[in-house]
Write a structure and sequence with these properties.
six-stranded mixed β-barrel, Alpha-Beta Plaits, alpha+beta, globular, four-stranded antiparallel beta sheet, Barwin-like endoglucanases
């Protein structure tokens, strides 16, 4: 017997149960996404992450460090708690409500004009600390500076740095940070591996909010140009990228 054309198919009990289960699963997935959020959190500070010893980030080489000619572009970040009240690299107590910043190579007490390339805001900060050590970031600003540049919420912004004043900018020695480890034995192994060909190789302790870190520094050379040559040699012969760091002692 042929079924009439206008008849409707009646689902079985099993089909109804399966459809209900699928609807319930979709509802649970939607509620889960709405509760925890489907976006990554915005970064606030670059000081907590540690570069990988085998593939740390690099940055473009800056122009010579002289007032009026030093220009650097990259990404700025900011840092506050838990560094507020701790000792900065220059020895003074870090106050996140003052206009200060961290830079890898500029001498302490240098004054840098920072321009937020997104909104055109500018301000001047004093270099009191070392860092940042993440990606292409070129400066780590205090909370006060970040507020003036309107970058607290975003965490990072593209900036231009112009050196306004520096204390003996070409004096001093430079080294390369080639690794940072939570396990001291790993730092010792890297030091011993590089000690004969890239002396001196030193391990420096850094008491971070996430625990003690052991940072490995190679070389001690005059000027950033010599440091860049050493960095290229390390990359070519050892497969290591590195950060150029001014030695402040």
């Amino acid at each position: 017997m042929t079924r009439p054309r206008n008849s409707q198919h009646v689902p079985t009990r099993w089909q109804v149960t399966r459809r209900r289960a699928l609807r319930a699963l979709l509802v649970l997935l939607f509620l889960s996404c709405a509760t925890v959020g489907c976006a990554h959190p915005r970064p606030r500070s670059s000081r907590a992450p540690v570069p990988s010893p085998t593939n740390p980030p690099t940055r473009p080489a800056p122009t010579p460090v002289t007032p009026g000619s030093f220009v650097e572009q990259g990404v700025a970040s900011w840092y506050g708690v838990p560094y507020h009240g701790r000792r900065a690299a220059n020895g003074e107590i870090y106050d996140m409500y003052k206009l200060t910043a961290a830079h890898r190579t500029l001498p302490f007490e240098s004054v840098v004009r920072v321009t937020n390339l997104k909104n055109g805001r500018k301000l001047e900060v004093r270099i009191t600390d070392r860092g940042p050590f993440v990606d292409d970031r070129v400066i780590d600003l205090s909370l006060a500076a970040a507020r003036d540049l309107d970058m607290v919420a975003s965490g990072v912004v593209p900036v231009r740095l112009d050196l306004v004043a520096a204390v003996s900018p070409l004096a001093g020695r430079f080294a390369l940070q080639v690794g940072a480890f939570q396990n001291r034995e790993n730092a010792v192994q890297l030091r011993d591996r590089l000690a004969k060909r890239f002396p001196p190789v030193l391990i420096r302790e850094y008491d971070s909010p996430n625990g003690m870190l052991y940072r490995v520094f190679a070389g001690r050379v005059p000027g950033e140009a010599a440091a860049r040559q050493l960095a290229e040699q390390l990359r070519r012969e050892e497969g290591l990228s590195s950060f150029i760091i001014r030695l402040d002692d």
